[in-house]
Design goal:
By secondary structure, this protein is mainly alpha-helical. It has one domain. The protein contains seven helices and two strands, in the order αββαααααα. The protein has helices spanning 2-20, 53-73, 79-84, 86-105, 108-113, 119-131, 138-164; strands spanning 36-37, 44-46. A two-stranded antiparallel sheet has the order 1-2. α2 runs antiparallel to α4 and α2 (53-73) packs across α7 (138-164). The chain is globular and about 40 Å long.
């Protein structure tokens, strides 16, 4: 009887999700091996021959999308404007968390082959934002937005563009 109720709720949730989700994937497990879909904005991205490379390409696209979002969230803001905007703080911190999480989920092969990206710092920033959220230094976040995010976007755009040409 309990199993029947659980099964009923689960199938009802699946039906509700499919009608509200517009068919977007929320997990890389839902993606065919020859087509990578970003876990962040669910756009079809690339086809690769490698068994695990498609997932790494989706993570790279997640990082690029989140980096652009972080840049856009603070676009046109002065440092003083950023300091007083709680919305900007939360939005930028969340985008940086996504970048770090996607960086951590990428394979060692991808991280080793792309030396231009500071993987350890990205993952460490994500961990600091999540685990030590009470002591976030907004000077560091602002500097990250102004210096590191533009260069990260440049690196990731080259990676994404080179993969799409394959």
């Amino acid at each position: 009887m309990i199993a029947d109720r659980h099964s009923s709720r689960c199938s009802k949730w699946k039906q509700s999700w499919s009608s509200y989700s517009d068919g977007r994937s929320i997990s890389w497990r839902d993606v065919r091996l020859n087509e990578a879909t970003t876990t962040y904005d669910a756009n079809t991205y690339s086809r690769t021959a490698s068994r695990y490379m498609w997932r790494d390409q989706a993570y790279l696209l997640d990082m690029l999308t989140a980096a652009r979002d972080a840049r856009d969230f603070a676009a046109g803001m002065t440092r003083d404007g950023y300091d007083v905007s709680r919305l900007a703080h939360y939005a930028v911190a969340h985008a940086l968390q996504i970048i770090g999480e996607a960086a951590a989920r990428g394979s060692d092969d991808t991280r080793n082959s792309v030396g231009d990206v500071r993987w350890t710092q990205l993952i460490g920033l994500r961990n600091r934002l999540v685990r030590d959220y009470g002591r976030i230094d907004h000077d560091i976040l602002w500097d990250t937005l102004q210096v590191d995010i533009p260069s990260l976007i440049d690196h990731l755009e080259r990676l994404v563009a080179s993969d799409q040409s394959e």
